[in-house]
Amino acid sequence: MLEVKGLRVAVAGTEILKGVDLMIGEGEVHAIMGPNGSGKSTLAQVLAGHPAYTVLAGTAKYEGKDLLDLKPEERARAGVFLAFQYPVEIRGITNSYFLRSALNALRRERGEAELDPIDFLQFLEQKLKAIGWDDSMMNRPVNEGFSGGEKKRNEILQLAVLEPRLAILDETDSGLDIDALKTVAETVNTLRAPNRSFLIVTHYQRLLNYITPDVVHVLADGRIVKSGGPELAQELEARGYDWLRDGAMVS
Amino acid sequence: MAAKTGAVERLVGSYNAWATNGASSAPTWLKELRAGGIARFGDLGFPNMKQEAWRFTSVAPIAEGSFEQATPPARIPPLDDIRPFLLLEAGYRLVFVDGFFQPSLSTPFFDDVQSLAHVVTHRQDLVRQYLGKYAATQDRPFSALNTAFVSDGAFVHVPAKATLAEPIQLLFLASGRPVVTHPRNLVVLEREARASIVETYASLSEGAYWTNSVTEIVVGEAARVDYHRVQRESPSAYHVAATQTHQGRDSTVNVHTVAFGAALARHDIGAVMAGPGGTLILNGLYLLAGQQHADHHTTIDHAADHCQSHEYFNGVLDDKSRGVFTGRIIVRPGAQKTDSKQTNNNLLLSPDAHADSQPQLEIYADDVKCTHGSTVGPLDPRALFYLRSRGIGEHEAQRLMTYGFAAEILGRMEVAPLRAQLDGIVRRRLAEQ
Asked: What sections of B113-223 are H helices per DSSP?
């Protein structure tokens, strides 16, 4: 599904990722953990095509395509989705209009008929139920005046509506209370499928109590320094990151 | 300067000729009102950019334009020609062409929704009580000039406790002839009355002309007015206007204003909150392109306690256009518990577009809440990436965000057919980009 090799990335002249290798198979759930400033969010954003980042070297193959050559919208249409750490407000555009525009962009790409507002609302109903919302959130401008938790739920709603093949969650758990965290995890678990992969970027092990990953990676100083099974997350929770900082022990 | 002086003399001359001829049959009080207006205009002359209120806007093209006073139009447009500007087929409306009331295109309601020229004689006492009592002329040369030429315009009177179910439309059409018109409108809502009004300025053909309008809106105790103003003049027209509201205790005034047209537009909006417990919304949009220039000058006067005012103005500026916004808020001594919020956001779609935004807060009471904020800049790149990361193409994402800037303002309007009409105009304008 995704094969990243020797990825080196800079932002504003500073190298953040210093050679990342990562292989995610179809249907797998990978977690990336690491201390602040290790480059976790950079990896998430560069895979989604954020224009502020410069790729210095390396490749990222997604379903055989060179991901780094695609514009952000082309990546999205190919099935890549990024749940933002800091979701952005869009003034004057309702959540409903935004989400329908996005869904229809993907449907056009797949050669499917666009949904009109009425069809869309029907389609949306069950997705909203899953995250515990009624449609009042849909008539408000995108993320405007939303609480931190509401913004994160809104990201997960978009994930549920757009049904990507590769979902990247960038610290979706940060700032969530335990109920919201459970809702997010449940939605993600429902969406787990043999043809859908997840890359979950998180600072805390907490989320992984509810979403069991297949593989856990530790990113430190721009490199993946350790990979393992779900038990690695437990170990990190118990021991912190310091024991990994110096050694480049790739297991 | 010489051109300006010449223009003042020409306008005064034109007034004198009219006063001794066409306007001589007016009642004495009206003649005095007019005489006061022309005297004031003669003293003030055209404003210049050295004056604080005019530092970003030059009216030289208006002074140099040599616009003649309008005469009645030779041809009355058929209903089909004005249909694109109408909101509803039914409902009350007053239609004017080059400032002259057109009974055949209008649907007045007795003497409550009528042409001003008619009620000046038929409801003299009522009109006299309000006309010219609210719109300042002391330091406003254009309002003074309008007052000098007061003859026709719209009159709306809503008796106490009455509610008008449908919005009233006031439609001012320009034929496109190179003339100046001075529409004068008076809206009076008695206590606990309610009405929605849509005042539209539009043109039947492209052409350079000058509209100089004044609207006074008087809102009684616990009354509510939803007043909408749409300026879609010809792209070469000049539009100068003053809207003045005056509201009593516990009343609600919602002013929505949209500026799409004119080469040069200046709109002064004044709102006096004269009684406690009043609520005011000023909600405005200017959408400009080419070399258009639009200047909005708003003054909210919190003269009583426990009032709240919310002001939202968004500007979308493309090409070499320029938007000016001045938001003055005065909180008088004793106007405690005032809650006032002002925002002005300007979206620059081109490196040559320009916006000036000036909040002016004058607070003379100590227990008040006043906030203001303004932004000027291009589309937010973070929002652009957010939309693109959801599969929306770059160009469409830009259009969507620009549309959102306008939709934010239009969304506050409650008259559905108006919102739909304006939404259509915005979408067409954005599609041209």
From this structure: 116-122, 124-130, 141-148
